[in-house]
Amino acid sequence: MGFVQGESRQQAALFPVCIEELVPAEHLVRVIDAWVSTLEMGRLGFSKVAPKGTGRPPYDPADLLKLYLYGYLNQVRSSRKLERECQRNIEVLWLLNRLAPDFKTIANFRRENGAALAAVCRAFVCFCRVEQLIVGELVAIDGSKFQAVASKKQVVSRRQLAGELAAIDADIAGYLAQLEVADRGDEQTPAPDNKALRQTLARLQDRRADVATMTEILAEMGAEHYVVGEGEARLMRTAQGPTRVAYNVQSAVDAEHGLILHHEISQDAADNRQLEPMATAAKAVLERTALTVVADAGYSNGEQLSACDANGITAFVAPNRGVNNRGDGQLFQRERFRFDAAQDCYHCPAGETLTRLRPMTNRRLMIYAATACGACALKPQCTQAKQRWLTRHFDEAALERAHARCAAEPHMLRRRRAIAEHPFGTLKERILGNGRLLLRGLRGARTEMALAVLAYNFKRVANILGPAVMARAITA
C-alpha cells in the first residue's frame, strides 16, 4: 500500500477555490474584521483617513490596523514579517482583500499612530464594559519589567565615565612626558615619533572633552546613568536577576475576567509611587466614585495610601516594613511599642515613654526616643545603644489601615496573584514572544504595549464569549 498522494501541481481546477471558502465561519480573523469595521478611524486620531485628490492613494488605516492586530495575536510583530504574511497567509489575504503593503508602509503606520493605537485599546475596554465583561468590583495592580531595544552595552554611568576620565588623564600625562623628552633632544634616549605622539594626544584630548561633556549632562539631568540610543529607558532589575535596560509596565486588571482595563509605562524601577496614579486612572475608566484595589508589598507607601484614602480608593497592600536586625534580630521589634495618638508618643514594653524629637522631612519620618533606658531591666532585650529610637511615618495611620485590611482578609492577597500575574505572563510569552519591545523610546514603548494589551484583551474576550458570540456582540 502506498502513501496518500496529493494532486499534481499542474492540475487545473474547473472551479477555482474562493478565499472566502478557506476561512471558517467562526474564525477569529472574521471577528477582527468586524470589530475594526465599527471604529471611527478619524475620531480615534489616525492619520491619512481621508485620501487626497491627487497623488498615489494611501492604504486605509483600518486595513493596517487589522494587519497589526492579527500580527500581535499571532506573535508576528516585525513589519518585514507582516509583509511576508500579506503574500502567503490565507487568513491575511482574506482579511486585507489581497492587499500587500510593503514593510516600510507597515512600519510607518505603527510609528506615526501611537496615540491613535492607544485610543483603540481604550475603545476595546469600553466595549468590554458595555458587554459587562469588566465590572470593577475589585482591581489588581501590578508591574513588570519589559526589556527595551537597547542592550546593556549602551549604558553609560557616572562611575564608568569617572574611571574612563582618570584613564584618559593618565594616558595624556604619559604622552606629554614623551613629548617633553622629544623636545629636550636627549641623545642617550631614543626620540619618539613627534608627529604620531601629537596626533594620538589630540585624539585623547577630544575623547576627554566628550567624556567630560557626558559627565556634565548626567549631572544636569540628576541621573546616574544614560542609555545611548534610548535615553528614556532605565537600568532595572528584572525577574531574571541581573539589571537590564527596560521599562516598568504597570497594569490594572479587573478581577471578573482578568481583562486589563488600564496600563501605563513608567521609567521608575520601583513600584512604590505607582499605586495612587494607577488606581485613580482605573477609577476614571470605570466611572466609579469608589474602588477597591489590591497590590503587593512593592506598592507599600504611606503617602500613596493616604492619597488613595482621600480619593475614595480602598487599598489592600501587603506590608513592607523594616525590621530591627540588631542583636541578630532578637531585640524588640516596633510592634512591641504602643503609640499614644493623644500624647503623640510611644510606650515601650517596660512602660516608659518615647517622646517626639524631630522630623526627617526628606524621608517623611518623625523620630521618637526614650530617656530612661540606662536603668531599665529590659534594655538588653531592647537596644544595644544608649537609648532606644523609633521612627514613625507621616502617613503611618494609612499604612496601618491598609495592613489591618490585609490581616483581616488574607485571601485578598492570594486573589491578587491569580488576577494580576497571569496577564503579564501571557503578554510576555504568548504575544510579545520574548518579552522584548521592538520600538525605541517611551513613545515607542507605549505604542507597542497598547497593541499588546489590545491583543491580550481581544483574545481573552474571544475565549470567554467564543468568536461567533463576540462577532454578534460587535455588530449588534
Description of the structure:
By secondary structure, the protein is an alpha+beta fold. The protein folds into 4 domains: 19-112, no CATH class; 139-149 and 233-320 and 401-453, 2-Layer Sandwich (Nucleotidyltransferase, domain 5); 153-227; 326-386, no CATH class. Helices cover 47% and strands 15% of the residues. The protein has 17 helices and 13 strands. The protein has helices at 19-22, 28-37, 41-44, 61-73, 79-88, 90-95, 103-112, 114-130, 158-184, 194-221, 275-286, 302-310, 379-382, 396-408, 411-431, 441-465, 467-475, and strands at 139-147, 155-157, 225-227, 234-237, 243-254, 260-266, 291-295, 313-317, 338-340, 345-347, 353-360, 365-370, 389-393. The strands form 3 sheets. Strands 1, 4, 5, 6, 7 and 8 form a 6-stranded mixed beta sheet that branches. It has a 5-stranded antiparallel beta sheet with strand order 9-10-11-12-13, with no helix packed on it. It has a two-stranded antiparallel sheet with strand order 2-3. Helix 2 runs antiparallel to helix 4 (61-73) and helix 4 packs across helix 16 (441-465). The radius of gyration is 31 Å and the shape is flat. The two termini are 54 Å apart. The model has no long low-confidence stretch (mean pLDDT 89).
Give a quick rundown of the structure:
The protein is α+β, with helices and mostly antiparallel strands and 476 residues long. Helices cover 47% and strands 15% of the residues. Strands 1, 4, 5, 6, 7 and 8 form a six-stranded mixed beta sheet that branches. Strands 9-10-11-12-13 form a five-stranded antiparallel beta sheet, with no helix packed on it. It has a two-stranded antiparallel ribbon with strand order 2-3.
